[in-house]
Amino acid sequence: MRFLRLLSTLLLAAASARAAAIEEITIADLHAAYRDGRTTVRQVVEAHLVRIEAYDQQGPTINSIITVNPAILAEADKLDAARAKLPTGQIPQGALWGIPVVVKDNLDATSMPMTNGFQGWKNYVPPTDAPVVAKIKSAGGLIIAKASLSEFARGGGDNINSVLPGFARNPYHTAYATGGSSGGTGASLAASFAVVGIGTDTGGSVRMPAAHNALAGLRPTVGLVSRTGVVPLDAHRDTAGPMARNVADMAILLDVISGADPADIATTKPPHRIPAPSPFPSGFASSLRKDALKGVRLGVLRQAFKPTVTDKRILANFEKTIAELKAAGAEIVDPFTVPEMDTIPRPPQTPSSFQSDMALWYAAHPGVPYGTVKELADSKLLHPLHQASTEAAVTALPADKDPATITGRNNEQLLREAFTREMDAAKIDALIFPTWAQLPARNGDRNTQITDDPKPAPDAGPTALSSSLTFVGSMLQWPAISLPSGYAGEGLPLGLQIVGRAWSDGKIVSYAYAYEQATHYRRPPASVPPLSPKF
User: Fold this and answer.
1) What is the 3-state secondary structure (H, E, C) of 68-109?
2) One of this protein's Pfam families, by short name (predicted)?
């Protein structure tokens, strides 16, 4: 009898050890719970829907979701029915099987509007899935919702410049911005409205909200992930990218969404002019190693975050980050310098690029309202911040004839050559620097200069909205990842950025994993506390 009581106690303890809450849950934990029969896909989806209901439009009002998938519970039931046909302890194949995924609302997904944050498209439902969305579904993932974004993905420091969804709030402190333009995806993942998510990154729109929301977010090498079915901003730089609360889940999602796409010229003829290796890169999740930083040479690109434009708290935190990277086995080259970075003008995103890229997108979306850039501008439905730039695109020269665009692309190539040359000479494996030079902006604060010597525009001093350090990866079209590296101010997250050469995505993801495992900075935000019981 005593043995039976002891056995019962041990079994209860083992079950308790396996128990998991929906908040902060990982893909591995969910799959284990499915295999053990502790939960169903419907229960998992319902738990996420309860959190969205409680916190997105009520309570802290995170406002990160534009559309909840109306068929999500029926889709969950189909997965549960498929699992019921398998032997106990098994689940259907699929790296994302039964995993709720949130997708930025500039990707096509059937049965839901694709708004791009624009009120004129609030009723537009695309007829097909973007390849990224189709791959998620094929891997068993469930698109639980479409996330808020800065209108037409134009936004960095905030996520307020959109008429349709309004601004999203940072779950770590709702007075502050989420970062843009993928701020809806960032805030919803931080708040555990889904397990993983998709953002897009042109000038930093995956990495900015990743930094502000204590997430891992990757801007892949342009060409690694299809952009078909994604509304363009500048197709030379645009890419979709995975976001998650931990690097392992982010890598699983990257494995699912990456792959060549004949309809996307960047996967066969990338703008950075370096073709994809053969076989095409894959196996990102299986290559993660806790010791991946040992012997890796990391160059500190201090040119990107000079003290005159960087918050002292971020500078101090980054010195701590360097020490942590050293402790994890990395060799630090500090400073690492690329002289041309200070002499070659930073390549711009131009109205001509937007005009030319949107013309191609419109041709593939014949049913969309306001079906030309001119109709878009003439509608006057845009956010006032974007009206002028859209009007400029109407009269802009085609991208291949516009001097500013041509010069910018030539300068991008010169910078790629310069970075490659200096990294090769110093035997640098990757570059490191903060993701952001200032703490997140307060919502609605667009122009406050953070300086003792304010200057008039266009030479204004640094502001929280203009402090992104993501331009390096974007202008090179190289892979760049942001991951949590600490907190400052009123508990606001800070990000470490790692940038590698073209197609070195697997390496920098593994470096990020090693750093994450050595530091474990991710913590859930207090504004959206747990609701669901453990299962």
Assistant:
1) ECCCHHHHHHHHHHHHHCCCCCCCCCCCCCCCEEEEECCECC
2) Amidase
Question: Is the omega angle on the peptide bond into residue 16 within 30 degrees of 0, that is, cis?
Answer: no
Residue 313: helix, strand or coil by DSSP?
helix
- pLDDT of res. 457: 75
Q: Which domains, ranges and CATH numbers included, belong to the chain? A: 30-289+479-519 (3.90.1300.10)
Question: Parallel, antiparallel, or unpaired for β 430-434 and 492-499?
Answer: antiparallel
Q: In the chain, count of helices (H) and strands (E)?
A: 15, 11
**What are the φ/ψ torsions at residue 331 (nearest 5 degrees)?**
-95, 125
Helix (H) / strand (E) containing 5: helix 2-18
Name the DSSP letter for residue 492: E
Task: Provide the pairing of β-strand 142-147 with 100-104.
Answer: parallel
**DSSP per residue over 283-312, as a string?**
-TGGG--TTTTTT-EEEE-GGGS-GGGS-H
Rounded CA-CA distance 166/163 in Å is 6
Residue pair 162/117 in contact by the 8 Å Cβ criterion: yes
For residue 68, count CB atoms less than 10 angstroms from its CB and return exposed for 0-12, middle for 13-18, buried for 19 or more.
middle
User: What was the pLDDT predicted at 18?
Assistant: 54
Sequence-distant (≥ 6) Cβ neighbours of residue 363 within 8 angstroms? none
* Total-model pTM: 0.96
Query: In the block, which residue shows the tokens 């890796």?
Result: 296
Q: What is the pLDDT of residue 322?
A: 98
CA distance 473 to 458: 24
CB-count exposure of residue 205 (10 Å: 0-12, 13-18, 19+): buried
Comparing CA positions, the residue from 94, 68, 78 lying closest to residue 40 is 78
- Amino acid present at 323: A
Q: Which residues are catalytic?
A: 104, 181, 205
CB under 8 Å, gap of 24 or more: what pairs does 361-364 form? 361/231, 361/232, 364/228
pLDDT at 2: 42
Question: Mind giving me the DSSP string for 124-187?
Answer: ---SS--HHHHHHHHTT-EEEEEEP-SGGG--SS-S---TTT-----TT-TTB---SSSHHHHH
Q: Which residues of the chain have pLDDT under 50?
A: 1-17
DSSP SS3 for 258? strand
